[in-house]
Each structure stands twice: as structure tokens, then as C-alpha cells.
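Input C-alpha cells:
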């Protein structure tokens, strides 16, 4: 009996799925925290508002990461993971190691900035 051939990038996909679960849980916790009632003490409410601004930034960053990871999983499923979505060239392995969900090669990323 032969063993099934592993799907290309199965380990990367598994890492993405684990990271996605962590991010979703973190974003959910942040959003619950942001929905909590404010403190009636005005001095405490100022501090809470400052904290909420930090949480809102973390929420936005988390949502962007979730979107990027979901898009990368789609590229894996479509068999195009590791190819630049703009020019179609391979993304350098070093770039994928540093930024695994990156949809762009370094040249296209530089041009986009």
C-alpha cells in the first residue's frame, strides 16, 4: 500500500490555519473588550479611551493579517502559492520565509510602495 502524496505546502497551510485560529481568537477578545461599558469615573474613562485606541489599532492589524492569511490559503488551494499575484514570477524563498503570506515578489512590493 502506498502512502498518499503530501499536498504541496501542506506544512505552510497547517501553520497558516494555526495562526488564523490564534488571530481570530485575539480579534474576538479585542472586540469584546472594546464593546464593554465605559467607566463612569471621567479620569478612568480617559485612560480607558487611550487603551481603546491601542486596542483598535491591534484590531485593525489583526483583521489585515487574517485577510492576508486567508488569501494565502486560497493561493495554496489553487496551486499558485509562492507566485507573485502581480507579475506571476516566483517569490524568493527568503521572502516567503520572512513573510509567508506575502502575495508579491520583492520587485512588485517595492513598486507598490
Amino acid at each position: 500500500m502506498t502512502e498518499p502524496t503530501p499536498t504541496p505546502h501542506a506544512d505552510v497551510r497547517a501553520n497558516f490555519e494555526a495562526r488564523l485560529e490564534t488571530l481570530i481568537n485575539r480579534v474576538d477578545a479585542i472586540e469584546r473588550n472594546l464593546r464593554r461599558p465605559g467607566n463612569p469615573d471621567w479620569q478612568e474613562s480617559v485612560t480607558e479611551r487611550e487603551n481603546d485606541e491601542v486596542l483598535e489599532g491591534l484590531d485593525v492589524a489583526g483583521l489585515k493579517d487574517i485577510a492576508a492569511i486567508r488569501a494565502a490559503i486560497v493561493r495554496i488551494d489553487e496551486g499558485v502559492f509562492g507566485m507573485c499575484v502581480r507579475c506571476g514570477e516566483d517569490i524568493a524563498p527568503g521572502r516567503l520565509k520572512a513573510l509567508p503570506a506575502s502575495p508579491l515578489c520583492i520587485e512588485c512590493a517595492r513598486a507598490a510602495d
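The chain has two domains: 9-80, 82-113. Residues 9-80 form one domain.
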